[in-house]
Amino acid sequence: MTAHTAHTNKEVLSRYLNLPQGEKVQCMYIWIDGSGEGLRCKTRTVDFEPKAPEELPVWNFDGSSTGQAEGSNSDMYLHPVALFDDPFRLKPNKLVLCEVYKYDHRPAETNHRRTCKKVMDRVLEEHPWFGMEQEYTLLDQSMHPFGWPRGGFPGPQGPYYCAVGANNVYGRDILEAHYRACLYAGVIISGTNAEVMPAQWEFQVGPCEGIQMGDHLWIARFLLHRVCEDFGVVASLDPKPMPGDWNGAGCHTNYSTEAMRLEGGIPVMEKAIERLRKQHARHIRLYDPNEGRDNARRLTGLHETSHISDFSAGVANRGASIRIPRQCAEDGKGYFEDRRPSSNCDPYQVTEAMIRTTILDEWKDDTQAAEEEF
Q1: Nearest CA-CA partner of 128 in 336, 330, 320, 327
Q2: pTM assigned to the model
Q3: Strands 313-315 and 200-209: what pairing?
């Protein structure tokens, strides 16, 4: 099937974007839709440059068109919660991350930020830091991997990871544009690299403390999709976009508390990892928006993954559920990496689960369920 591609002239657009806007400011409200992984946005004009999200008004939208309400009662509320500079319209214009609430002012089903924020507020003195490694795959508008030959495949995996050269790298312009857009917006982006499968890339967000992790990763994802829109390319967060002998895509989550980062932190890390082992099935259900079904295609025990039904931990082991970096093992302190979250996970759910398990320890043992469910 031939895909229809729609292109516009960006040079023509620039004439209008360069027009003065007077004292008005454009604020693009951004929210998570009913799928739990899609993003939506719309813009309103305000008469001032907001310095904090609470300065902006609550807005509404048609939830029946985003999978969040019925048409007979479709109004949903957008509550601004985080503010970023707009790299497309430029300052003083803003990107506004929002929580979604229903007609009766209860949080929408996919509003996981609300409970995550409450949990993070309970452990402020622990100073939990997160860093999430977002993998994604570039596709053309026919949903074929960007740069892959039509009707065929590139050479086997091996030369593409952290590669250079037109024969190994597909879509670096998008990576660079997204990186700069994140920096301009104020996203805490810490790095990028080409991944193991051709047309697959990664960017890292963090270190972020508490609720900041989810806020910054969701805006970084929005910026990725928005940049790809300009290039006429699609960014897929599917955890296994290509079946067969190709790596999947994850969102490895690096985590530490202040006690782990101090001298003698390794025993604290080991205690946290043991608690994670006991809650393996629960975490798997929370680590993708379809309760583990997406991740089941990726966590096969192959391609640098541990099997979805197994829990393991090891130093420098990328085939384990939890990896302790070798440098941290040598230093006796630092952080560990949870390699189970899928590329399309909700970072609010992932980080909340890690806190509930490793610090609050308020769930019952879920090990038996892991063996039965997966």
Answers
A1: 336
A2: 0.96
A3: unpaired
